[in-house]
Design brief:
448 residues; alpha/beta; TIM Barrel; 8-stranded parallel β-barrel; two-stranded antiparallel sheet; globular; binds phosphoenolpyruvate; binds manganese (II) ion; aromatic amino acid biosynthesis; amino-acid biosynthesis
């Protein structure tokens, strides 16, 4: 399919899965018109820089840490919530960079992750059949018909909250908060009693020794930008195609089309049909793309989708995010890696150890177990090493809050503890402590 046939609206001629039943009329039309006139959230040049960094991850010269909420929540678009998430990402990346000795590409599921695919259009709540909750950009989770009716104005609200989030992320990452000298300040007192807390303290001491050594030989850390600023890229699932189209603009420098709602967009396991609207939309934008692959994949189908999304096989363009679950990864990953490598596709291989390992506990809560999550990552590494390919990164659902949504970890959370602080409206997330613990385990895997 030649790119010149593509328009930002050409997806309308294809079947779009997982779209809300938006009410038609002036509210819907006016919302999209307003969105299409508002400023872009990200700049095309940033997307190109991210693509170039991802090309390094294809070769194993950098590691992709993509993480954040399953679904962002409008009510949690607050300074402290954003700061706590950023803090855990900074802690994890410093562990990976220092202990794992690898450049870390930090990508948040942030500033736009407001829409969710669902397994069913409706759900039965207290005998009432209601539209499913599809994320704050579509409807509200309360179990009433009014709350669950899709409201297009929520897309505008999502845009503004994404802009506010991104604004604070940029201030924190460029304005001194993320300076390596503050590595001690990112520490959490709650980690103190845990092995990861001790390891983090040791790491902080080593980092200080390094900074002091730099000063001693006359390199002023204040004047080394890499020590004072970090880049956190944004990403979300490109699910609501009307929203994504409204934010798609032509870059005046390169002449390419960019979806300016986020730096990286991914296509979900439920919406990646070869002849579907999502593949059609994403093939025409120049942002780096992700594609989720679950256990039911068809290998020929995957090859055709890759050829459509990445016809030039440009390294960094495509990240394949596999999410098989610990029980299926041994069966599903090796043939995929072997075949795509044989075809010569240059992709980043990333492991999502969350979505294939979700279960419902005896109290009806959706959860995941820390050790199982870690086990899928370990298998991912073993398989890639055995195949001679590059394990390029991880894709995690986590939060900076002290939630109790996933079991396990060194606090040994069990199913019966999860009620203490179970907050998610969607999938269960690792908490900040579990995130830092996971980073230490990952650092060991990075240099075996
Ligand atoms: C997700 O990342 O939240 C998600 C829904 O994933 P998948 O498309 O892999 O099911
Ligand atoms: Mn999820």
């Amino acid at each position: 399919m030649p790119t010149h046939d593509w328009k930002k609206s050409s997806w309308h001629s294809f079947v779009a899965q997982q779209q809300p039943n938006w009410p038609t009329g002036p509210v819907f039309d006016d919302t999209l018109k307003t969105l299409s006139q508002l400023p872009p959230l990200v700049f095309a040049g940033e997307c190109q820089t991210l693509k170039a960094s991802l090309a390094e991850a294809v070769e194993g010269k950098a590691f992709v840490l993509q993480c954040g909420d399953c679904a962002e929540d409008f009510s949690r678009c607050t300074g402290p919530d954003i700061r706590e998430l950023l803090k855990v990402i900074l802690q994890m990346s410093v562990v990976l960079a220092f202990a794992g000795e690898k450049k870390v590409i930090k990508i948040g599921r942030i500033a736009g992750q407001y829409a969710k695919p669902r397994s069913s259009d409706t759900e039965l709540v207290n005998g009432l059949e209601l539209p499913s909750y599809r994320g704050d950009m579509v409807n509200s989770p309360e179990p009433t018909l009014e709350a669950r009716t899709p409201d297009p104005r929520r897309m505008l609200e999502g845009y503004y909250r994404s802009a506010a989030t991104l604004n604070l992320v940029r201030s924190f990452t460029l304005g001194g908060y993320a300076a390596l000298e503050r590595v001690q300040a990112w520490h959490r007192a709650s980690l103190d009693a845990l092995p990861a807390g001790q390891k983090y303290e040791d790491l902080v001491r080593q980092i200080w020794k390094t900074i002091n050594f730099m000063s001693a030989i006359g390199l002023d850390p204040q004047h080394v930008p890499q020590l004072n600023q970090v880049t956190l890229y944004t990403s979300h699932e490109a699910l609501l195609l009307d929203y994504e189209q409204a934010l798609t603009r032509m870059d005046s420098i390169s002449g390419g089309w960019y979806d300016t709602s986020g730096h990286m967009l991914w296509i979900g396991d439920r919406t990646r049909q070869l002849d579907g609207a999502h593949v059609e939309f994403l093939r025409g934008i120049q942002n780096p793309l992700g594609m989720k692959i679950g256990p039911k994949y068809d290998i020929d189908d995957i090859k055709r989708i890759i050829e459509r999304l990445s016809p030039d096989n440009e390294p960094g363009r495509l990240t394949l995010i596999t999410r098989f679950g610990v029980a299926k990864i041994e069966e599903c990953l090796p043939p995929l890696v072997r075949e795509l490598t044989r075809e010569g596709y240059k992709v980043v291989w990333s492991c999502d150890p969350m979505h294939g390992n979700t279960y419902q506990n005896q109290f009806g809560q959706k959860t995941r177990n820390f050790e199982v999550v870690l086990q899928e990552i370990r298998s991912f590494y073993q398989i890639h090493r055995a195949e001679g390919t590059v394990p390029g990164g991880v894709h995690l659902e986590l939060t900076g809050d002290n939630v109790t949504e996933c079991t396990g970890g060194s606090r040994q959370l069990m199913d019966q503890h999860l009620h203490q602080n179970y907050q998610t409206n969607c999938d269960p997330r690792l908490n900040a402590e579990q995130g830092v613990e996971l980073a230490f385990e990952l650092a060991d895997l990075l240099h075996p």
